[in-house]
Amino acid sequence: MGNPEAIETSIADVMASLGRAAHAAASRLALASTEVKNRAIEKAAGDIRALRKEILAANGRDVAAAKASGATPAFLDRLLLDEARIEVMAKGLEAITALPDPIGRVLAIFERPNGLLIERVATPLGVIGVIFESRPAVTADAGALCLKAGNAAILRAGSESFFSSRAIHECLMAGLDEAGLPRTAISLVPTMDRAAVGEMLAGLNGNIDVIVPRGGKSLVARVQAEARVPVFAHLEGIVHVFVHRDADLEKAKKIAFNAKLRRTGVCGAAETLLVDNACAATHLAPLVKMLLDAGCHVRGDSAARLADARVTQASEEDWRTEYLDAIISVRAVSGLDEAIAHIGSYGSHHTDCIITENKAAAERFLREVDSAIVLHNASTQFADGGEFGFGAEIGIATGRMHARGPVGLEQLTSFKYRVHGDGQIRP
């Protein structure tokens, strides 16, 4: 079996080496031209298409292992790649190349009475550690976004998506080679051992500037508890759809169906449906029936159970559960005040939606619900960087510091001040 201490030392040494190399690469990337960065990303997109059979074979290996371990259908959906998803991945990289380079943008400029001219200018963050589990496409999205924003990336794929991520990473390496950039600009942690995560959370001797976790509640909770560097994270996506008394029923049905069932395993999938008592007589039963008939399990309060006998009793825990599956909790509420209060008590500050034709009610909901993304009359599954025009995203941040909502190019930058003088001294 070998010496466990030697294994730990070996992983620590490997991770320390990755950190040093990424730090050195970040210095080069900060000065790389837009053309060079785009060339690397374009080549990676082309290789993803050209090597799709190899990527699908690697993904098949991951999926087979996940099935053997008893993974849920929702988990398998997050893990699975097919021809269409590979094309989406490649197009996502091409969309990143089409976006303006965020580095070097002058964010503000002002002149002081003493003649000093001060500019606030966008700069890279440095080295970004991305820890993710079952979504292999994060490898491409995170690598390309970090690169375009002038950052080096250290990617740690979960054991569930290890082989898929490795195949995609090879395409990113080909892009870096094509552009003459260091391969250490986008590193993939070469081990499945969880000790590597601990090393990243400790900051790799000061070489990681920020951590972005992308995974389940237990992973994100660990990152938030142990990280010694800043974290862009959301703990979970407890997403609500509130059907207001002035909601159009057909619009509500279309939005609620898509929000819950388009893809149940994404963080923007609705987990709780709130229906205003004022329209429950006409809206609650059709909405619940629609979900049940589509194969969605409904857990509800007394009003929801009276609306359809197939509804099971919701527990207190259901209101604070991210199912990531074809399950939804349903509750009748006494108007906008109670809906906002419920979201404030049970929500996770991720994404919440109101369906209504009442403009004043919508504006109040958008103003008072403290979530990273709030929507009016639109599916919560638009909680996605690509849908926001960001090209792609690393994740959805629900904190209030620096980044909130989809973390795209702009959120992967910091800034510095450039001060221009002509001999001024401070009295």
Structural description of this entry:
By secondary structure, the chain is an alpha/beta fold. It folds into two domains: 4-232 and 407-419, Aldehyde Dehydrogenase, Chain A, domain 1, CATH 3.40.605.10; 239-382, Aldehyde Dehydrogenase, Chain A, domain 2 (3-Layer(aba) Sandwich). Helices cover 44% and strands 19% of the residues. The strands form four sheets. The protein has a seven-stranded parallel beta sheet. Strands 5-4-3-6 form a four-stranded parallel beta sheet, sandwiched between helices. β9, α12 (302-307) and β10 (312-313) form a beta-alpha-beta unit. The chain is globular. The N and C termini lie far apart (69 Å). The model has no long low-confidence stretch (mean pLDDT 93).
N-end to C-end Cα span:
69 Å
Number of strands: 16
Q: Which CATH first-tier class of the largest domain would you pick? A: Alpha Beta
Low-confidence stretches: none
Q: Outline the biggest β-sheet.
A: 7 strands, parallel
Summary tags:
427 residues, alpha/beta, Aldehyde Dehydrogenase, Chain A, domain 1, Aldehyde Dehydrogenase, Chain A, domain 2, 2 domains, 7-stranded parallel sheet, 14 helices, 16 strands, 19% strand
